[in-house]
Write a structure and sequence with these properties.
The protein is built from eleven helices and seven strands. The protein is α/β, with parallel strands linked by helices. The strands form two sheets. It has a five-stranded mixed beta sheet with strand order 5-4-2-6-7, sandwiched between helices. Helix 1 crosses helix 2 and helix 3 packs across helix 11. The longest helix is centred in the middle third of the chain and has 18 residues.
């Protein structure tokens, strides 16, 4: 029931729509689903150290970075931000699709020169599977993007990424890994691309997981080089924001 419905229901009363809105807001709250992040002091210090130590890096340095991440993409867009109404004294719950839903996990990478490979992750991700993904896609992506032999690879601090066997793999391949401090995703510009990708794919209305994977890969390839380049060109602004927040969270 919206404000207009309430107004018609109470048509015998002299009441304006704004009054209905005000009264409704007393009983209901408009919210959005978004995970809150509370950073420990030690994490803030690490983020601040990262930002201050890299603020003076040249644009060419950031152009050499190959950014990576994994994300879950749901068939019906359930991982997108959604607004809803609930009574102020009721539990924060969100309706879910019982049948016909599902999701896929993907790994992908990009640089200022454009998007690299995207891979669907089948089954549970472990260290061995992660290394297989790297073996089959990392070097090829770096080559396609013409990053040269001295590129820098970025990954987060997931235990599978930091496992001894994985770090040995990087060493054997002579790949420099960017030391990463962040528990928050705001320092990784690929998060911006994930958000845009999910919005675009959702508009394609995939009807099953096969179509979802197809649309994800197609739309990932369609992301413009200029968009990727812009994210990297403005990366120092992220570092400045972290410094201004003393290692805390930022708008990114």
């Amino acid at each position: 029931m919206n404000c207009r419905d309430l107004q018609l229901r109470w048509e015998t009363l002299s009441i304006g729509q704004q009054s209905v809105v005000y009264c409704t807001n007393l009983a209901f709250m408009e919210e959005w689903q978004e995970e809150s992040h509370f950073l420990k002091l030690s994490i803030k210090k690490c983020r601040l150290k990262f930002a201050t130590s890299h603020l003076g890096d040249t644009p060419n340095m950031w152009k050499k970075v190959l950014w990576s991440d994994e994300t879950k993409i749901e068939l019906f867009g359930n991982n997108a931000k959604r607004y809803f109404w609930r009574k102020s004294n009721t539990e924060h719950t969100i309706p879910t699709v019982k049948h016909g839903g599902g999701s896929i996990m993907v790994w992908a990478c990009f640089s200022s020169a454009g998007t690299g490979k995207m891979v669907k992750i089948d089954g549970k991700m472990d260290g061995a599977k992660y290394r297989t993904i790297l073996e089959e896609n990392l070097m090829e992506s770096a080559k396609d993007l013409r990053l040269g032999r001295r590129f820098v690879f970025q990954q987060d601090n997931d235990p599978k990424h930091k496992a001894k066997s994985t770090m040995e793999w990087f060493k054997n391949k002579h790949i420099q890994v960017l030391e990463w401090p962040s528990q928050r995703p705001d320092l990784n510009p690929i998060e911006n691309l994930w958000k845009e990708l999910k919005t675009t794919v959702h508009k394609c209305s995939p009807s099953n997981l096969t179509e979802l994977e197809l649309f994800c890969k197609e739309e990932w390839e369609n992301i413009s080089v200029s968009r990727c380049a812009k994210l990297i060109e403005t990366y120092p602004k992220r570092l400045t924001a972290v410094i201004a927040a003393k290692g805390g969270t930022t708008k990114y």
